[in-house]
Design a protein that fits this description.
alpha+beta; 7 strands; Chemotaxis protein chec; 42% helix; two-stranded antiparallel ribbon; five-stranded antiparallel sheet
């Protein structure tokens, strides 16, 4: 990450976003990292499912406050970079060294040290699991 908080997106991701006509990402903070989606995927995966929930339920309010309140749209510049807003960098503890992972329909941007710890824990838990997670 440079001094202005910009990171270059990997070439394959830039190409896929460009082919899809996407010039922006929606970034937010979740579970120790900055998560990013195309605006359409953010609406489909995050915003739309919330529309069917009771907006006054504590669990829904907590989710909305924690995930949606810090969400920000960012432009992808001509060099294929995005600028990570300072509040999101602070929440994720990101300073200079970052790891960007493409996960299913989103990206995750981690502080390098936090990612290495998270990855080790995931490897350990996965080694003890019985296969594919079931999910809900």
């Amino acid at each position: 990450m440079d001094a202005k908080g910009r990171i270059a997106l990997p070439v394959q991701l830039r190409r896929a976003l460009s082919e899809a006509g996407e010039g922006k990402l929606v970034l937010t903070y979740s579970k120790g990292a900055i998560w990013g989606w195309s605006p359409g995927d953010f609406e489909d995966s995050v915003e739309s499912p919330m529309a069917t929930r009771d907006p006054f339920a504590d669990e829904v309010m907590d989710f909305v406050h924690a995930l949606l309140a810090p969400a920000q749209d960012v432009d992808i510049d001509k060099q294929g970079r995005i600028r990570i807003p300072q509040p999101l960098r602070e929440l994720a503890g990101i300073d200079r060294e970052v790891v960007l992972n493409s996960m299913l329909n989103r990206i995750e941007i981690w502080d390098r040290t936090a990612w290495e710890e998270r990855f080790r824990k995931s490897l350990d838990r996965n080694a003890r699991s019985s296969g594919m997670p079931r999910g809900e």
